Amino acid sequence: MRQIVSVTSVDLPESRVTLNVEVLAPALERSISRAADSIGQTLRIPGFRKGKVPAAVVISRVGREAVIDEAIRADLPTWYAEAVAEAGIEPVGDPRIDIGELPEEEGKPLGFTVEIGVRPEAKLGNYTGLKVDREELDVGDERINEEVERLREQAGRLEPSEAPAADGDTIVMNYRGSIDGVDFDGGTGSDQVIELGSGRFIPGFEEQLVGAGKGEDRTIEVTFPEDYQAEHLAGKDAVFAVEVTDVRTSKLPDLDDSFAEEMGYENLKALRDDIRERMTESEDRRIRATFREACIDAASEKAKIEVPDSLIQGRASEIWEQTVRSLAAQGINREAYMQITGKTEEEVIAEAAPDAERSLRREATIAAIVEKEEIIPTDLQLEDALEHSAGHEGVTPRELLVTLREDGRADQLEKELAARLAVDLVEESAKPNLIKPKKD
């Protein structure tokens, strides 16, 4: 790969560094050319077709400085990532970037500085043979029974009922809502299906329908919550005239071999055995993951690690931004989440501070163990780690590893695997102190 930047690093107090970065002239000119092409897509210049204006003409028309500005806007994230990789640092939080003077002539580099927090360093104490709590693996009959009951409820069928509606029953209703005797928008519905006790309606609404029978009319009085999504209703008292048109109760299948056969099993024992096996595998994974974290936490407690508040704040902000991206994937934006939780961003970030500090201490401890133990993953270990990805891409693990190295993308894999091997070392030498599982 062609070198894009050159970097020198200056250490600052409180786990921060300044990177003095130069975008090398050849790389900068390539970026400027791409930026000129992009600007040229929108220019109309006599004698040239739209989108076909040469870079030199674009630069002459709009000015070299404007084109460099566009190049910076497009390529600064790449230059920053290259600088971080070249410096060999693990950044924490948002960088502060200052762009230097723009080069007026071709063949000159572009300079900029980056100030950023970096992972703290750990002075290791003892990290092997540590006594660490570990949950006992216990998947008892009670949990199996709960899962079987959940499956029965899923398989239940709604049947008409002449009895008064009870919690858990489903009713069908027509309703009309009013405030101070005046109907309001969205307050009328027909053939509305609701499960009593589900909590889907306004607080207090479902509770007042318990005991209602088919064909019965009821008057329901409620108060809309202060944070109700329809602002014109929030905090207001309302009255609903409800007609119950049907009551249905869930008929659960008998707990016998026939039920198990409907679920795809030979008999009830086979169903319970399968549930136990799956639960045992799941619990074993959870317990081991928790134990591994506890092992590293124990090692970090033995180490000397200074974690400045600025780093904790930076990592907490990163955790929050990860949460925002995860919520966006579920169709929930930042503002909606703030409204649901009733918290400000500052409060959410502050609540993430303990997790942020813990993660920084773990990372510092793991990195120090990797260095002290001189852990360097072998090609065989790297290929084992790539087996799933290679299968997905239809190549051998060896071929995928070669490709990653050719593209300069193997370093991150090697770092992640080295960290995993360091945790393995601490875990395998630890002395588990078995404790009873916590009751939910």
Automatic annotation (TrEMBL):
Catalytic reactions on record: [protein]-peptidylproline (omega=180) = [protein]-peptidylproline (omega=0)
Annotated GO MF terms: peptidyl-prolyl cis-trans isomerase activity; protein folding chaperone; ribosome binding
Domain PPIase FKBP-type: start-end pairs: 168-250
Cross-referenced PANTHER family: TRIGGER FACTOR CHAPERONE AND PEPTIDYL-PROLYL CIS/TRANS ISOMERASE, TRIGGER FACTOR-LIKE PROTEIN TIG, CHLOROPLASTIC
EC number: 5.2.1.8
Protein name, per record: peptidylprolyl isomerase
SUPFAM superfamilies tied to this protein: FKBP-like, Triger factor/SurA peptide-binding domain-like, Trigger factor ribosome-binding domain
One annotated GO biological process: 'de novo' cotranslational protein folding
Keyword vocabulary terms for this entry: Chaperone, Isomerase, Rotamase
Family: Belongs to the FKBP-type PPIase family. Tig subfamily.
Classification via InterPro entries: PPIase_dom_sf (IPR046357), PPIase_FKBP_dom (IPR001179), Trig_fac (IPR005215), Trigger_fac_C (IPR008880), Trigger_fac_C_sf (IPR037041), Trigger_fac_ribosome-bd_bac (IPR008881), Trigger_fac_ribosome-bd_sf (IPR036611), Trigger_fact/SurA_dom_sf (IPR027304)
Transmembrane portions of the chain: none
EC category: isomerase
